[in-house]
Design brief:
The protein is an alpha+beta fold. Helix content is about 35%, strand content about 20%. The chain starts with 6 loop residues before the first helix and ends in a 10-residue tail after the last strand.
Length: about 180
């Protein structure tokens, strides 16, 4: 009987445990090598996705940070209902797609948003976070991923505070008879 001299020769024959010879194990090793490569590729892609954090994966919580805060204002209303009514009125008179969304988990928070295009992510959405404080005007902070959006935010604030004004001009007489 011949003794095995190296560990590699023992591994090739299955350590004498009656396993199949190396040539029969080759497809199994190829399969395992392919699985290993697939796992490594998935891990590399996952890490690359984390490292390449750009506006594509921007979340609302990311946007609502001081890095993207563009301006702050006080809105002279006491309730979110007044803001909603003003936005509805402005949309009826002037058009536009500024939307109001109350935070379902915190009754003192709400968002006013305007998307650059339908289906836009948070990187292409102008966002005003509203905070309702007791016995104070509503605090508003405007957020945008891109700089240079001050004029658009001014129009959004005008839609809230002056709903009868469309792009600096009074709305049509027939629709301005109702109160807000």
């Amino acid at each position: 009987m011949r003794m095995y001299s190296t560990l590699s020769s023992k591994l090739k024959t299955g350590l004498g445990l009656g396993l199949a010879p190396a040539r029969a194990q080759a497809p199994v090793r190829g399969f395992l090598r392919g699985k290993r490569c697939a796992v490594l590729l998935c891990a590399a892609l996952a890490l690359a996705g984390c490292a390449a954090r750009g506006p594509v994966g921007l979340r609302l919580n990311d946007l609502l940070s001081s890095d993207y805060a563009r301006m702050q204002r006080k809105i002279p209303y006491d309730t979110f209902a007044q803001i909603q009514m003003a936005l509805f009125r402005h949309q009826r008179l002037c058009g536009g797609d500024v939307t109001f969304t109350a935070d379902p988990t915190h009754s003192s928070y709400a968002l006013v948003t305007e998307k650059d295009f339908p289906g836009a992510g948070w990187d292409h959405t102008l966002t005003i976070q509203l905070v309702l404080l007791l016995d104070h005007p509503i605090q508003a902070t405007a957020y945008s991923y891109y700089a240079g959006t001050e004029r658009r935010f001014d129009r959004m604030f005008d839609a809230i505070i002056k709903p009868d004004v469309c792009d600096g001009k009074p709305a049509a007489k027939q629709a301005s008879g109702a109160k807000h």
